[in-house]
Structure formats: C-alpha cells, structure tokens
Design a protein that fits this description.
By secondary structure, this protein is mainly α. The protein contains 6 helices and no strands. Helix 1 (27-43) runs antiparallel to helix 2 (52-77) and helix 1 runs parallel beside helix 4 (99-118). The mean pLDDT is 85.
Length: 177
C-alpha cells in the first residue's frame, strides 16, 4: 500500500499592497489644510507676543507628526504576514504616502515665515492665512471630485462643501477670540 502524505501547499511570498492611487492620496491634502488652519487660528493669541517663526515650526511639526501617525495607523490596521524586513518596507510605504498632509501645510508655513521676515502683524496674517486655506480647501475638494469622476458642477459643490470647513474655522476663530 502506497500511501502518500498530503503535501502542504507552499505559502505564497508576501506582497506589497498596491500604492494608493487616484484621489486616495489627495484626501490627505484636505486633512493637512484643515490642520494648518486650525493651528494658525489657535497659535495666534491676542495680547501675547506674535511669534511667526515659532508658529511656522509648530504647524510643520504637527503636520509631519499627524502624517506619521496616520500612516502608522493604516499600517497597523492592515497587518500582513511576512518577514520583519517586509513589514518595515510596508511601514515605510504607509508613511511615505502621507506626504500630501505635510505638503498641504506648507502654504501656511511659508506665509508665517514671510510674515516673520516682513514684520507683518498677527491679525492680518491669520486672516489672510485662513482665507487662503479656505480657498485651498475649495480647490482640493473640486480637484479631487473631478479626479474621481464627478461632473464639473458637482465638483464645484463638493469644493464648496470643503471650503465650508475653512469657513467654520474662521467663524470659530472669531467666536473664541
């Protein structure tokens, strides 16, 4: 009697998940812009010394930290089997795709640096920055909507919805201060 033992099926080598495509990575741009707006509003305190370089540093550090935390959370939520080296490569990829969150905060950082160099006042810089970020939210929302297939009119309405977040931050800033 020739009994054959069932052969275990070989485990396929772990693969990288496909990188985020299309509009997926663009949503981090909306997050980064909202984050920068909230920080710009919160860091400007009436009656305190205006420190635009300090504020720019905190906007950049917070955007980078939020991007790292978001990428790490995605990595941990999608645990895959594989070697340690493979998992580290997956983590690096998950962190790398968060760059739009940091990039979206750069207009605010640049505005604050220019304000520090030019000696601009905090009220004007905050107002311009919040207005600029609200316009950027409209642009991000409209662009992403077109990119995922919405018609132009619908894309403009989606951009308007995103800009409403910026308007909410402006209203909150006015009410809190």
């Amino acid at each position: 009697m020739n009994e054959q033992q069932p052969q275990p099926t070989p485990t396929p080598a772990p693969t990288f998940p496909p990188p985020r495509q299309g509009a997926d990575w663009m949503f981090a741009g909306v997050y980064g812009t909202v984050l920068a707006s909230g920080l710009l509003a919160a860091l400007d305190q009436a009656g305190e010394d205006y420190t635009p370089f300090y504020d720019a540093s905190w906007v950049l550090v917070t955007a980078a930290t939020a991007g790292l935390a978001h990428g790490y959370a995605h990595h941990m939520a999608s645990h895959q089997r594989g070697s340690v080296g493979h998992r580290w490569r997956l983590l690096a990829r998950a962190l790398w795709v968060e760059w739009p969150m940091i990039a979206a905060a750069l207009p605010t950082v640049l505005l604050l640096v220019i304000a520090g160099l030019a000696g601009w006042g905090s009220d004007a810089v905050t107002a311009v920055g919040l207005g600029l970020n609200t316009a950027l939210l409209f642009a991000w929302g409209s662009f992403v909507a077109v990119r995922v297939g919405h018609r132009f009119r619908a894309a403009l309405l989606i951009g308007l919805a995103d800009a409403t977040i910026g308007l909410a931050i402006i209203v909150a800033n006015a009410l809190i201060k």
